[in-house]
Specification:
single chain, about 550 residues, 21 helices, globular
Amino acid sequence: MTRAEGTTAGGYLAKNDQRSKRGGIAGTTRILEKLRTRAATMPLLRHFTGGGEDSPNIAIGQGLVASLMVMFGSWGVGWIPSSQESLLSRAKPLLPLRVEAAGVITCTLLLALGSMLLFRAWLRLRQRSESQGPAAVKVIVRAIWTWSIPLFFSFPILSKDVYSYLGQGRLMHAGLSPYSDWVSQLPGWFAQGSDSLWAESSSPYGPLFLMYARFTYFISGAVPEYGVLMMRLIAVGGVALCAYTVVALAKISGRGAAWPLWISVANPLFLLNMISGVHNDGLMIGGVLLGFLLVARKRFLLGILAVSAAIAIKPIVVLVLPFLGIAMVGRHATLGRKMLAWSFAGSVTLGVMALLGWASGLWFGWIAAMASAGSAAFPYAPVGLLGMLAGWIGTLFGGDLAVISGAVFTGFRAVSLGLVFWLALRRPTGPPLLYSGYALLAAVVLAPIIQPWYLLWLIPFFALSRRYPIVWERALYILCLLLVLAGVVDQLSIGQWFSLLWVRIFAAVIGLAYMGYLVFIDPKTASTFGTERSTGQAPGVR
């Protein structure tokens, strides 16, 4: 056989192989469509499948099922402390889920699959609500709260930071400062659920939040379940505040509110981290957005007070203060007017922080804590990796790892601050909300620690500023899917008599398999990812 004949034969076989693969995917798609159509005729299942493309209730129902799966899964592999004060650590109804292999495997399956199914419901919600017009916002709000109800009753997942919150409240109750003292200085800290990663780190939170943490610890009587409930209440408040401010800011800017609300607040990454994960970031971002909303309504003092409260929850958002001042006087104002606005905003914020510092007894300890943050650097954060690498190389020549890596972290903090000043002073100045997003993006990317939920700080600012190419949106969908799955796999709480490695592998396989189904096979979502040619479906929404 000649080379040309071989090439022709090889090409023919490759084409046949490609056709067979496409035929296999198309066959799978047809089978799934038949099952979906059949399920739509059943009395119970018809409320969760089928329906026209203008039926958002179907997507909401699917998301409710997914949230219930996450809730039940968290009861077996979510975080609960082992302290004597815990009400649930030895609860008999939970023992089969947490100590038996069948229970742990089932709960891991529910958690991994439920979190991925929630993403499908989210994607379908957008497709099904596009025909609703102005009513789409109400539909999305209804979806947010329908999905949030089961998540409210879940055990903490994706992170156990909430127990660190309570540990820092315990520190304050003992008369110590979370800025200069550590959670590990008090006995029993590990049994109460605090993450060992932060056990010897300064608190990154502001005095207002730490005062609430102390109040929570006192009111809960050191019972962790009561403390988690109180922390979850303000987390839900943060979700509500974000939803309200995103819609209001979108209307003021003349943009449609449905897409920003869907991409930022209804996002499963947001709901799972804020409500199930019990984080205070939603309240922080909601406070900043409220500040911009009040400034847009010409209520400047109230706007500054709202942002000051957000800073007192998590001081990192002090970086948006220059852009709040620009929003007060307008992008095209002279430098003199901007300086006056910055002076006014800075003075009010300084007064608020001083008052809260006096009330808490912590004063301005948060400044030193911010400057020293990063001692628990994550190796997968680029700057954290670079700092640790530089420190390791330095030790080969007699240097100190902590000193060298700390110098690298400080250098990149200076770079991020320089970028913020440049954004604030450059002419012409860009949109304040968008530039606030740029400032926070610089702080996140150049930090030695990057947590998955830090992405959630950025999405509302960018979503409220402009629309983006579909390729960027698809990249964000994939990133959100991967971050949730990474959190599920990394943050499984199981007994020491089980192999954590194999349970994690099981969760990863389940999650990745369903993710592949969403992206490449599902006839309703593949088009969203631009892979509809493989399934023979018509192009989907953008």
